[in-house]
Amino acid sequence: MDPRPYSNLAFGFLAPALIVMLVCGVIPMGYVAYYSVHDSFAGNNFIWVGSEWFQKVLSSPEFFGALARSVGFSILVLAIEIPLGIYIALRLPTKGVLSDIYIILMAIPLLTPTLVVGYIWKVLVMPHAGLLGGAAAWLGIGYDMNNPIVVWLTLAAMDTWHWTSLVVLLCFAGLRAIPDAYYQAARIDGASDWAIFRYIQLPKLRLVLLIAVLLRFMDSFMIYTEAYVVTRGGPGVSTTFLSHELVQTATIQFDLGEGGAMAVIYFLIVLCVSWAFFSRIITNRSRQMRRAEA
Predict the structure, then answer these.
(1) Are 124 and 161 in contact (CB under 8 A)?
(2) Rounded to whole angstroms, how far apart are CA atoms 25 and 188?
(3) Phi, psi of 92 (to 5 degrees)
(4) pLDDT digits (tens, 9 = 90+) for 136-179
(5) Fewest CB atoms less than 10 Å from the CB: which of 28, 92, 118, 210?
(6) Is 204 helix (H, G, I), strand (E, B) or coil?
(7) Parallel, antiparallel, or unpaired for β 46-48 and 38-40?
(8) Burial code of 95-127, b = ≥16 C-beta within 10 A, e = fewer?
(9) Model-level pTM?
(10) What's the pLDDT score for residue 254?
């Protein structure tokens, strides 16, 4: 039995965070859910329509097109950032002044606001004037932002520059947590660098990588500001992600009912995926604890 006395003081420390979550998350989401089952007219006249807006959203080709683009973008950036983040973390020095310098440099993109990131890359890809656009013109390569492939590659490069550092820092911390005894045993057995990575580092990074994938999926799936600043959803609708479709419906077309239903579905998708990852993280953590006790 735990000898420490039970105290409710912890709930007091959690109270500010709970209040912020209530005011900034729960109450607005309640209003969104209310809009999703009502039709609104001039003033505050709301008429109950039940699941009508949900049926309209789920039968909309625009919704599923935007959903497919959001999922595709998340898969693309995860396929780039996770392996790249692991590789950079493995190459970083673990001790000395250089290690501290590299960590500080890695943190700079993470501290850059999303709006600033969008405008930086918007300037970079300007034809002739931007660094990337000018370099492409100098090489005789057409950097055409009206080409959907070029636009997708630009957004992927922008997201990679902005968020790979998060994966690097998480993996770097995970690698630093591996006891030296594992490496010493591997050297005694004559294990190669690949064998050390495959049988020591990668298994020990499993939990960290699950967290990294969860965080990066959530952020990339909900991307809005950076992509909108650079492309405005174009060319055509090739970069109109689900977040853009939602804002377009709710604030520009002012269809509060349809926008509310879309937001609820969006929220449920993120919640289900996050819960699946969270359950997997808890399962892996419990397994590691049982192995440690054994």
Answers:
(1) no
(2) 54
(3) -75, 140
(4) 878 878 788 888 999 999 999 999 999 999 999 999 999 988 88
(5) 28
(6) helix
(7) antiparallel
(8) eeeeeeebbeebeeeeeeeeeebbebbbebbee
(9) 0.88
(10) 84
